[in-house]
Amino acid sequence: MTSGRARRSGEHAYVRGVGNTRYTKKADRTVEELAAHAISAAAEDAGIQVGEIDGIIVYHGHIGTDEVISHMGLPDVGLRAIIDIGGASAVSALQMASLYVLGGAAENVLLIRAMKGSSGGRRKAERKSHLPSQHIRRNLEYVVGCNTPSQRYAFLCRRYMHEYDLTRAHLAEIALAARAHANLNPDAQMYGRPLDLETYLSGRVIAEPYLLYDCCLETDGACAVIVSAQPGREREGRPAVAILGTAEGHADPPDDFLSRDPFLAVGLEKAARRLWDSIGLAPEDMDAAMVYDCFTFEVAHQLEAAGFATPDTIGRLIAEDGIRLGGRLPVNTHGGLLSEGHMVGLNHVVEAARQLRHTCGARQVDGARHIAVTGWGNLGDGSISVLGRQSGSS
Predict the structure, then answer these.
(1) What is the DSSP-derived secondary structure letter of residue 258?
(2) Percent of the chain topping pLDDT 70
(3) Does residue 26 form part of some domain?
(4) DSSP-derived 3-state class of residue 95
(5) Mind giving me the DSSP string for 147-169?
(6) Residue 107 in contact with residue 228, Cβ under 8 Å?
(7) Which of 63, 38, 43, 41 is nearest to 54 (CA)?
(8) Which CATH number covers residue 98?
(9) How far apart are the C-alpha atoms of 102 and 99, rounded to whole Å?
(10) For the chain, what is the domain count?
(11) What does the alpha-carbon distance between residue 109 and residue 105 come to, in Å, rounded to a whole number?
């Protein structure tokens, strides 16, 4: 299935197909059945047979490659990989998949997330941690009761709010914008469930300053992306979605943010500099952004780290320029992890592809041609990609 050809200068890989289930709190199907639905939808969208998938990239703790091969009856998978940088993994997988298909190691690489994150095995405090440097976790953090992402990231949020003009109102707007967008998305877990400011403010404290609605969902569902060296069949004038560039970066040190100096520096800063330098585009050229939103503050932090604002202007971008549809930079038009569903960021890639095809209906960003997608993982790993509506498409 591989061509063995070398990559030519200026050549891009493509997001050829995307698919997903509806996202729910309690699915009546197995994880394998959820995955099969999303994979089949992505293959149909790509215009290929499921059996033509010959590469798979997964994320640890979710459905594995053997389960996918067995359940889908894939006849000839020539490569399999796991990317293990938390929520930054899905965007980084675009880079790995691009290298595979442009280097001839595979023709159609599947990126898959499938889980029962709500009704299945819950994320208990005693679960095995995948964070690095467990000696730090056990000896310094666990002993004082710091054992959840909300607790760790709350340190960053509170410090940022102390140093810069970021307020509770800005966090609220991020949550409310996500929910407003999700209510335009029938597949979203929170579709049909509006959120207003009073309800947001009444949410219980999870880890100060995070309230209930500052935190992402637990979700049952699946989504899939197929990356190929060819854009795929053109149906009804559908444009190609090119992966214009992807980069990842780590903070220093990557395994302990409490001793980090500067404290608020994260890997996305490095990744974004490399990306913008390599593709000849800038943040102001983006028509929308899909930003990894495990918590509301991480949206603000990443927008700043990726160059969309400075610490002194991030509040204005959120509250005045606008991150809702019709604003200067629409963010997470599907609802994101906060309101569509928690697929560890791969659903952000799905949404970006659909926005660039102009098939999102009521939540469509007018004239979208370039969209940035970010990932946030572990203790500050970062990734960023720009997808583009291929030149010449209407």
Answers:
(1) G
(2) 93
(3) yes
(4) helix
(5) -SHHHHHHHHHHHHHHHSS--HH
(6) yes
(7) 43
(8) 3.40.47.10
(9) 5
(10) 1
(11) 10
Report residues of the chain scoring pLDDT below 70.
Answer: 1-10, 121-130, 233-236, 391-394
- Distance (Å, rounded) from C-alpha 1 to C-alpha 230? 14
Which token pair is 363?
A: 């939540």
What sign for the dihedral angle of Cα 348, 353, 358, 359? negative
Closest by CA position to 373, among listed 154, 136, 88? 88
Residue 182 lies in a domain: no
In this structure, the chain runs to a length of 394
Residue 132 in domain: no
User: What's the rounded Cα separation, in Å, for the pair 62 and 64?
Assistant: 6
Is this structure's pTM higher than 0.85?
Answer: yes
Is 42 domain-assigned?
yes
Residue 48: which domain range?
A: 13-116
pLDDT score, position 226:
98
Residue type (1 letter), 297:
F
Q: What are the strands, taking DSSP E only, across the chain? A: 13-20, 55-58, 79-82, 108-116, 205-207, 210-211, 220-228, 241-249, 288-290, 370-377, 381-389
* The two three-digit tokens of residue 357, written as one number: 């095809």
Reading the block at residue 211, the tokens are 């309230």
